[in-house]
Every structure is written in structure tokens, then in C-alpha cells.
Amino acid sequence: MPLPVTAIARVGVLTRDCRAAAAQYARFFGINNWRVADCAGRTADGNEYAHRQAVGYANGVGFELIEPQSGLWADELARCGEGPSHVVIPAPDWAALTQAQAATGLGTVAEHEEHGGRRRLLDSRTALGGLGLVFADADALIPHGEPLHLPGDAILPVQKLYQVSVMVRDLDAAKARFRALLGVEVWVDIGIDSAQMPGCEYYGKPVEHTARLAIGRRGGACFELVEPLSGPTVYRDALDRRGECVHHIMVSLAPPQDFQRAAAELAPRGIVVGQSASIPGLMAFAYFDGGQSLAGLFVEVIQPLADNWLELMFPSPEIARIVVGD
Predict the structure, then answer these.
(1) Is the model's pLDDT at 92 over the cut of 90?
(2) Same-domain pairing of 131 and 184
């Protein structure tokens, strides 16, 4: 009995300063309205924790920027540094979640009341490649706290949360765990090989590398698992720096000219393209390195090179739906 995962309401990112990070997210994603609140609770083993969080949305894509003050989030920040940490999943039925936890063996790390609602952090990181799972009911998902309005326009349109990507050391083992724990049954396997992809670059320089990845979906939640194999990649960098971890999200499909404009605008702000490649006649892909500006979050952008690129790459409508959703 897997966990009741139906959608991802927010992506959680650990940062040393949630207000400063929110200002940068406003300038990248166009999120102008935030709510900043202080939260506290006690872990299942009795240790207190506290943090400040800024919550904002862009076209339904939610972010919660966590600034740890003490306890479990502070420990993770000290151990792994800034970066994406967890996803928040709607929890309409707490009894069903508790039953699924018993079936999967995933315990509860912490639980607290928030805005009249309830949040529960599961002990999922070891099993799910560093991915933290927070379940929250409808009341807890309502942003609360001090309003914070920040200027900024989206660099590229935020369309939807296409995927959350996790770096793993063993792709097959990770797929099996995501299948057992989250109910992701079908995976789309894709290989990355610079010998077959012209123009592969790593921070602006030609590179030879290989990796393999798999994309799977349950409901509205799409996960990508990436195992680096050889050569320099942003994937390997993440594993070396943070261990298995959440690494990037994808929220935009953009024409090449729009991507180039965005890259030129972002470079002077310190947000550079960390890795890029293309499949001739079909699509190109690239990762913006958020670095300090986006508190360690990388953002993938796919650039279609043909109107029917998706059909050409994935002739099966069901496989295409797994990759990009409905």
C-alpha cells in the first residue's frame, strides 16, 4: 500500500535567509506576493525545532523557503547546505496516510499545527534519495503570516511544475523504492550520451559525459531520477556536494530565442547555464544554476526544436503524458 501521493503543492528549499531568497525568486519566477511566518514544533523523539518560512506561488507552482533556526531543518542545512529539500503533498485523509505509513514502514519525523491545519514530515530521505515528504491538509496549505510584496517579472513563463528531479547513485534501486513507497509504477528511461548529443556543454565548455535517468508519475506528481555515469555533470556535482538529493525542477518549455534572451539577462546576475545539450531536430535542454541567488535550486528549461517534438520523441500518448503531464 503506497503513500497517497496525488500532487505536489509546494517545493521546499532550505535557505539561510528566506526574505533575501524570496526577493531573488520574485525576480526569476515573478512571484510578487509572499507570506512570511515563524513555525515551531517538536520531533517524534522530543526535540524542538523552529524555522521561518516564506511561501509564494507562481501560476499554481508553490515554493516554501525555509530559514532554519534550530532543530532538524538547521541540522540538514548545516550538513547539506542550501538547496531544495522536500515537497509538500496535499493530505485529504490522515487515516489513510497513517495506514500507508504503517504498510511502507515510513515513520513520522515531526508533526505540528499550522494555521488551524496540520503538517506531517515523514522519515523518507534515506529511502527516496534525499527527498523529504511533507503532507499538509487544506488549512495548512493556506499561506499565512506577514504579507511581503516584492518586485519582479518572470524570466520565462512559469507554466506548471513539470517535474521534481532527484540525484541518485543507483537508478534501478531508486526506481524500485519510488515504486514501492510512492506507487510510481511506470518509468520512462532516457540515456544522456554526449557522443549522440551535439553541443553538450558544462558551464560553457564542450564536455563528454554520460548519465541515465527515468521519469515517472503518480497523479499530478512527476519525479525524475538521475544517475550520473561518466564525465563532468551538474548531476555529479550535486552528489559529490550534497549526497543523494533533490536537485532541480522544471517549470517552463520555451522557444530557443526566449531561452537565449533569458540566459543573457541572467548571466550578469550570477545565474548561469550549468549544463546544456540538444537532440537535433527535436529539443534542447539546459539547467540554470541558481547558486546563491536561488538558494541552490537548479531550474531546467526544455526548448522545443519542432512543433511535434513530443510526439516524435514519445509516440505513445501515455508515455508523453508521463513526461509532461496532461
Answers:
(1) no
(2) no
